[in-house]
Amino acid sequence: MKKVTIYSTPTCHFCGLAKDFFKANNVAYEEYNVGSDMAKRAEMIEKSGQMGVPVSVIDDEIIVGFNEPKIKEYLEL
Q: Which value, to the nearest 10 degrees, does the dihedral of the CA atoms of residues 18, 5, 40, 36 take?
């Protein structure tokens, strides 16, 4: 089972799409709200080089934005 983490904000439309995709495909994930958690925001920026959300991390692979084909590839769906 792959480790999935998503850095998101509550008002981000694409974050919602990514989380809905994970739920629809029974993918367990850990979520961090980078709107309120400054430490996780800094961690996200350090990992991805991006300030935009969502940032999904699947094992060691980083996906910026909601890129369904890449997510499917990394999750082997």
A: 40
- Tokens representing 43? 């961690």
DSSP assignment of the chain: ---EEEEE-TT-HHHHHHHHHHHHTT---EEEETTT-HHHHHHHHHHHS--SS-EEEETTEEEES--HHHHHHHHT-
Cα–Cα distance for residue pair 49/28, rounded to 1 Å: 25
Q: Find where tokens 């961690």 sit.
A: 43
Residues 6 or more apart whose CB falls under 8 angstroms from that of 10 comprise: 33, 35
The whole-angstrom separation of Cα 61 and Cα 27 is: 16
pLDDT tens-digit map of 5-45: 999 999 999 999 999 999 999 999 999 999 999 999 999 99
